[in-house]
Design brief:
Two copies of one chain form a homodimer. The first copy, chain A, has 574 residues and is an alpha+beta fold. Helix content of chain A is 27%, strand content 28%.
């Protein structure tokens, strides 16, 4: 492809609305353009990257026995009512009506559609396992679409659904997909980590893993073990309760005045005690119930654990100051567990009952209790793991210290079980003629998101650094002069030869200064740049530069194409 | 692929809801399944056909310099308001609102989005021509979705938009696309005809062609010349007025009683005059105006011509009996042109003023006028070509007789001109620094529709007959016995060898009777069937059968793979 004929509008300025680097670079490098908030057009180079990732995914899905189908984007409300999700799926679901006033939604996921399909076609255990997938647009009406392809409202996903006879079958399908996902991200040239994850709104109780592309800018925190292969989303990571060797209480609990002191930080300073001897008390509400949640003062509460522990309340939130006042007669900063009403359920993190004496709120403005003994001075109804793990803690599996990293979620696999097959009646007859529900799994890759994540992970001050397997083109030829006939003709010749060798190459034939071409080549991020200058070419040499290392070599003209081909082939090996 | 592992649920029964053969066969052959009225899931074999057509289209678009992009499906209402189409596009447009109550639609076409994109990126004539295309879902809320993929509500199209400096450039781009479309349908192995067409709702005044896949079941009528290459949608085809050598009037016009006689047929019989001496008079209304339309009694009125002649009224329709009564004081069957009110515009087909004496309605129940002289006895305000052409008429270009055929529209190309570029301000600076509007064309292929059309054209009583280039697989191997080890092993061996040669092959390894396998193979329509029977194989032979011709040959086992490969390669030549 000739750059002069390519719709690749590069920009020097950072677009005002682009907050993250991948969004900035995708716009600046001319890969995408916004059409409306959360909706983008892929320009030719952006689309090429997308297609390459899709191809890798397709190959890996097929290799595991996946069969590709294509389901409708518009889904009838009836199916969502059958699964029970129509009413619980919130404002993120785009809903619309047809001319006959029938309700539809734009699919954020396709469990209902695929289960409806399969229930019509599956009769016997002999037809299982069945792995069906598609690559297609998905929709999510984000409250605040941003970060370009990272959080759009229309985005592209691969979603595969597995149907098995039993849990053992599901486990096998799950493992196949886990392995396929590892291959996909490796083949894309990305540094990633599969981590244990929370199943979230998709549901299912059998377990879930997220695939994280590691990048300092990642919005997710992950912990991984320095000793074994344990890794988890920090939100999901289980904790081992730590015992603090604190002193025994010096007698009865005492109410002490703490004028104007409210935060854990302030109380710790005011009373000159470590934060690990304080108990944080938080009043939560969800599904019309109220709970008092207790956690050690130096820990961070993990709301997802609270939510799951309480049965997955969609609407879990901190009680309003008005509610706190009504229930406990104080403001939120003074809440404590001592003497709370009998009807109020108290749940505590595992570490709380292990504390010998604690400081806590007294449900009275400007006062705290000290020398409080958990379980003796206050009631605990339920003890659970409710906190965030912290780097340096011991791995639950091997005891080695955990480390932390930032990641961008680009894929997730779920063991669904029979949630959807039971709701929609996707059954089969087993060997004994007994009717059973299919055991399902679902497996998603954020295809468009993977583009953004790969840029977050691979860029520098000058632009994108594409991993070879997903680069829009593998090589760019830059004639540094447009007047020197030898330069122009040799560039055209090398361009044709590389194309003949199957290398994906563009020729920057624009009538621009060499500096402009270099800037664009770095911005777009072609892995290999071949530069033809008048002086070096007079000596029979051209310059070969790899974007990633920045290394530059002078190469004999006659050796160039084979060298380029060798670099490309090596980089595509997996 | 092994048939036992393929999701290819075939049906013996014709699905009740499927009215046309392509819909019946696509469901029966396990290519698609309905998810809701007008919404379908493509099963693996259906998707393979779709992808093959897409690949052919992509190659031909790229060969003409088209650049592939991918635009959003959800489009903001603002752009449609800018182009003026938001308010005129009727109930077929799916509209929805996001959580912030902003209006969107699901794109039935992408003129607004692409023009918005281009206006942001095009500055100079040097960037033109630019040809941008995508292959993507489109949406149309059909009042009555039916015929499977022929008239769905979610369907797949390729749409290319051309941007040129001037009309000459547009003509060149248009010709490129016209040629590419011819190649696409030829490469798909279809019998088709490009015909002159009406631009319809897409608009533009520069001309349009439709590409029709010829099939007796086609919903469109096309005429083509037996002498030259003229062809047109019958609705669009221009007519040459025919002069009838009728007698001169025998005096003044006379009012004659015609009790109970209303239709042209009846009057012709009652008065014993040929229908070609009658004038049909029809009262039309559109955009709050009323017109009396006159046409010779033996002709069919072409409403599209009436509509276009009057400036393209979206709502053109026959006046209601109440309106006729109010305006002319009679019922619709008695309407005639003599003595109509001064304010009522009278438009006549070109043939009417050429008639010497005519019979027509008298605006009085149970009476007609005879010996009426056009233009003398009644007023004609405008003379236009308003009728349907008829087979056998002389071609306007060469005079040879026209013939008629039935076709299914699978593509259309339009010269849009500056309709959208002016509305949205997609301008460029020409060589002299003068700002001009881009001159646009748009070019659509109904990708999913092409599948249906190809089946309408290519099938028999037993199932689909795929043209080789778009067959889901090229060859099926059917071991007639599942017990004969030689048969089973040879089948597996041939399967592997054919795969190795690059032939797309499936092996029907199911534990089914041979008859069932043959029926399925015919139904699905694999172009080549290789059958291994115990007796013939004992003689070192297998049976090679071509689906299209039904011809069967016995072939030596060792020659089989090369023979199959040769048949495939020959059929893919273009």
């Amino acid at each position: 492809m000739l750059v002069s004929q390519l719709l690749n509008p590069t920009l020097r300025e950072v677009p005002a609305e682009a907050e993250v680097i991948s969004h900035q670079l995708m716009v600046r490098a001319g890969l995408i353009r916004k059409s409306a908030s959360g909706f983008y057009t892929y320009l030719p180079l952006g689309l090429r990257v997308l297609r390459k990732i899709e191809t890798i995914i397709r190959e890996e899905m097929d290799a595991k026995g996946g069969q590709e189908v294509l389901m409708p984007i518009m889904q009838p409300a009836e199916l969502w009512k059958e699964s029970g999700r129509w009413d619980v799926y919130g404002a993120e679901l785009f809903r619309l009506k047809d001319r006959h006033n029938r309700e539809f939604c734009l699919g954020p996921t396709h469990e209902e559609i695929i289960t409806d399909l399969v229930r019509g076609e599956i009769r016997s255990y002999k037809q299982l396992p069945m792995l069906l997938y598609q690559i297609q647009n998905k929709y999510r009406d984000e409250r605040r679409p941003r970060f370009g392809l990272m959080r759009g409202r229309e985005f592209i996903m691969k979603d595969l659904y597995s149907f098995d006879r039993d849990e053992a079958g599901l486990h096998e399908s799950y493992q196949k997909m886990y392995d396929a996902y590892c291959r996909i991200y490796s083949r894309c040239g990305l540094t990633y980590r599969p981590v244990e994850a929370d199943p979230g709104a998709i549901g299912g109780t059998g377990g879930s893993h997220e695939f994280m592309v590691l990048a300092d800018s990642g919005e997710n925190s992950v912990v991984y073990c320095s000793g074994c292969d344990y890794a988890a989303n920090t939100e999901k990571s289980e904790c081992r309760p730590q015992i603090i060797e604190d002193a025994s209480p010096e007698g009865q609990r005492k109410l002490v005045p703490t004028p104007g002191v409210k935060t854990i930080e302030d109380i710790s300073k005011f009373l000159a005690v470590p934060k690990s001897t304080l108990v944080k008390s938080l009043l939560y509400q969800g599904n019309e119930k109220t709970f008092l949640v207790l956690i050690r003062g130096d820990r961070t509460l993990n709301e997802i654990k609270v939510n799951n522990a309480l049965g997955g309340f969609v609407s879990l939130q901190l009680a309003s100051p008005e509610s706190v006042e009504k229930i406990l007669g104080c403001e939120p900063g003074s809440v404590g567990p001592v003497g709370v009403p009998d009807g109020l359920m108290v749940i505590a993190d595992e570490e709380v009952p292990l504390m010998k004496k604690v400081v806590c709120g007294a449900n009275k403005a400007d006062h705290h209790y000290v020398d409080v003994v958990p379980s003796q001075d206050f009631r605990i109804d339920q003890v659970l793991d409710l906190r965030m793990v912290e780097p340096g803690e011991a791995c639950l599996r091997c005891g080695a210290p955990l480390k932390e990293a930032r990641g961008i979620e680009v894929g997730q696999v779920f063991k669904l079980g029979t949630k959807y097959s039971k709701a929609l009646g996707a059954n089969f007859l087993d060997e004994n003629g007994v009717e059973k529900s299919c055991v399902m799994g679902c497996y998603g890759v954020g295809v468009s998101r993977t583009i953004a994540a790969s840029i977050e992970q691979n860029h520098d001050d000058f632009g994108i650094i594409w991993p070879m397997p997903i680069a829009p083109y593998q090589c760019i030829i830059v004639p540094a002069s447009t007047k020197d006939t030898l330069v122009v003709e040799t560039a055209a010749k090398l361009y044709q030869e590389l194309k003949g060798l199957g290398v994906e190459v563009v020729l920057d034939d624009r009538d621009e200064r060499a500096g402009v071409k270099f800037k664009d080549a770095d911005l777009v991020g072609y892995p290999i740049r071949v530069t033809l200058g008048s002086k070096t070419l007079a000596n029979g040499q051209v310059e070969l530069r790899e974007r990633k290392s920045g290394e530059t070599h002078l190469v004999k003209v006659e050796d160039l194409t084979q060298k380029v081909k060798a670099i490309v082939e090596k980089a595509l090996l997996y």
